[in-house]
Automatic annotation (TrEMBL):
Pfam annotation, one family: Ldh_1_N
GO MF term list: L-lactate dehydrogenase (NAD+) activity
Domain Lactate/malate dehydrogenase N-terminal, residue spans: 4-142
Stated role: Catalyzes the reversible oxidation of malate to oxaloacetate.
Domain of life the protein comes from: Bacteria
Keyword Oxidoreductase part of the UniProt annotation: yes
SUPFAM superfamilies noted in UniProt: LDH C-terminal domain-like, NAD(P)-binding Rossmann-fold domains
Protein family (similarity comment): Belongs to the LDH/MDH superfamily.
Protein name from the UniProt record: L-lactate dehydrogenase
InterPro entries in UniProt: L-lactate/malate_DH, Lactate/malate_DH_C, Lactate/malate_DH_N, Lactate_DH/Glyco_Ohase_4_C, NAD(P)-bd_dom_sf
Lineage, top ranks: Bacteria, Pseudomonadati, Pseudomonadota, Gammaproteobacteria, Alteromonadales
Binding site for NAD(+): G9, C10, G11, N12, V13, G14, D34, N95, I118, T119, N120
Lactate/malate dehydrogenase C-terminal domain mapped to chain residues: 145-298
């Protein structure tokens, strides 16, 4: 079966994703598009070399917009010329022009695939993309707090000295500073978090560390790419495999009136069943606060 991913924006994030998709043999076709033609071209040639090293059989193209619009999945990863702030909301104005241009192309051709957005502010940009393209909401979604959920697994696993894969939980709300741990539903090694006896202060500090994990990475290398590339590749895999695996992705929430993260099944046709978590009173206040931030940016 043909597995064609196009990446719109091939900077740190887009090129890292391209590398994972090629070297792990997850695609049969890869189309790279970037406003900087030379960058997309260079990555395509470099990846063609890697493809041979890994005995792959991937067709890799650069700057072919018509091919992008025929892809099964378009991953959106454009970014501003310079990321001057670590507040993701500050990127909105610069990124939205490129997003509206893409949306207009998707609308004109009647794009039939899935659009998976990474570009920040992730929830806001995903909503702008869906509204401007007119594509069904089931086929336009964002990576949301899927990356933050990996960070929750890492930090809580470290704290409790268990494997991150034994941490089951989700980060709720915005992919941004107002995100929160949905503590009421966290289980570690099949035990509810309340039975692990973690002091409230340690929980609060862990939540702060997850929400600001990007800052720690950004301070070291001025970008974050491998975590998001990893989880995005797994979402693409779930689409191609029609696996119905659940990820914390940014989806349209009718009650909140905006895109925001919920654990949702991913399948070949896009979004499947949504497993909205029942939140306690404090968590609901945090969720509503996050949704208000997203709505404010969408409506500005
Ligand atoms: N959602 C997440 O979890 C997550 C995680 C990490 C980064 N991000 C976001 O991903 C985005 C990309 O980050 P990065 O570090 O790769 O940035 P980057 O600056 O390295 O790359 C951005 C690329 O987009 C290209 N570009 C800009 N406008 C374009 C347009 N209109 N058409 C085509 N290409 C265009 C640029 O030429 C550049 O190559 C940012 O918005 C960043 O905040 C999101």
């Amino acid at each position: 079966m043909n597995r064609h991913v196009a990446i719109f924006g091939c900077g740190n994030v887009g090129s890292s994703l391209a590398h994972v998709l090629v070297t792990r043999g997850m695609v049969s076709e890869l189309t790279l598009v970037d406003a900087d033609n030379g960058k997309a071209e260079g990555h395509a040639l470099d990846l063609q070399d890697a493809n041979i090293a890994f005995d792959g059989n991937v067709t890799i193209r650069a700057n072919d917009t018509s091919a992008m619009l025929r892809a099964d999945i378009i991953v959106v990863a454009i970014g501003p010329k310079v990321i001057t702030s670590i507040d993701r909301l500050d990127e909105f104005n610069e990124n939205s022009a490129g997003i509206l241009e893409l949306a207009s192309k998707l609308k004109t051709v009647g794009f039939t695939g899935i659009v998976l957005n990474i570009t920040n502010p992730c929830d806001v940009i995903t909503q702008v993309l869906q509204e401007a393209s007119g594509l069904p909401k089931s086929r336009v979604f964002g990576t949301g707090t899927s990356l933050d959920t990996l960070r929750l697994q890492r930090l809580l696993g470290n704290l409790l000295k268990v494997s991150p894969s034994d941490v089951h939980g989700f980060m709720g709300g915005e992919h941004g500073d107002s995100q929160f741990v949905v503590w009421s539903s966290v289980h570690v090694a099949n035990r509810h978090i309340n039975s692990w006896d973690i002091p409230q202060g340690a929980k609060d500090e862990l939540e702060r560390q997850v929400a600001h994990a990007a800052t720690a990475i950004y301070n070291g290398k001025k970008c974050t790419e491998y975590g998001i590339a990893g989880i995005t590749s797994k979402i693409c895999e779930a689409i191609f495999d029609d696996s119905e695996k659940v990820f914390s992705v940014s989806v349209f929430d009718e009650r909140a009136g905006c895109y925001i993260s919920h654990p949702t099944q991913i399948m070949r046709s896009g979004l499947g069943m949504r497993f909205t978590l029942s939140l306690n009173e404090q968590e609901q206040i945090k969720f509503d606060g996050s949704a208000a931030i997203i709505r404010k940016f969408v409506n500005q």
